[in-house]
Amino acid sequence: MNICREDLDSPIVMALVEALDTELLERYPEPGAHHFELEAEEIEDGLGAFLVGYVDGRPVACGAIRSLGGGAAEIKRMYVRPDVRGQGLAWAVLLELERIALELGARRLVLEAGARQAEALALYRRAGFAQIERFGRYASSPLSICMAKDLR
Predict the structure, then answer these.
(1) Domains of the chain (ranges, CATH numbers)
(2) From CA 47, how far away is CA 42, in angstroms rounded?
(3) How far apart are CA 62 and CA 90, in angstroms?
(4) Residue 104, SS3?
(5) In principle, which of 7, 15, 66, 129 could form an S-S bond with 48, CB 3.0–4.6 Å?
(6) What is the pLDDT of residues 15-38, one digit of tens each?
(7) Which residues lie across from 72 on neighbouring strands?
(8) In this structure, is the dihedral angle defined by the CA atoms of residues 138, 27, 66 and 147, taken in order, positive or negative?
């Protein structure tokens, strides 16, 4: 897989995010269960990044990182198209996001995943993330599971 930075408003990113949002809406139809916010300025150089993974020239995976300040960064918008899951693509995107987080000066990564996303939660646990108290906009969301990982 080839992983590249992309702009949030690129057609490639918009298509992947639309596919992700569609899947999340199917898993979480409840009102108020969605936290899709990510702004273009949050992933500008020096603040974060949006990555797209390509297999044979086809965009199949994505993920973003944004600095939260104070040595922390947040993983957002992780997604792999269903037809290519199970091939280690999410792992590769996550590793690249961690590398970028270190470049940004982050010492701690945080993320939110939904309680109905067992495969994502398993990935994050394998990568060294541990569950923490819900934070920020997720604090009052009973369907949210927040996780963190300290970086070296």
Answers:
(1) 2-106 (3.40.630.30)
(2) 6
(3) 8
(4) coil
(5) 66
(6) 999 999 999 999 998 876 665 678
(7) 69, 108
(8) positive
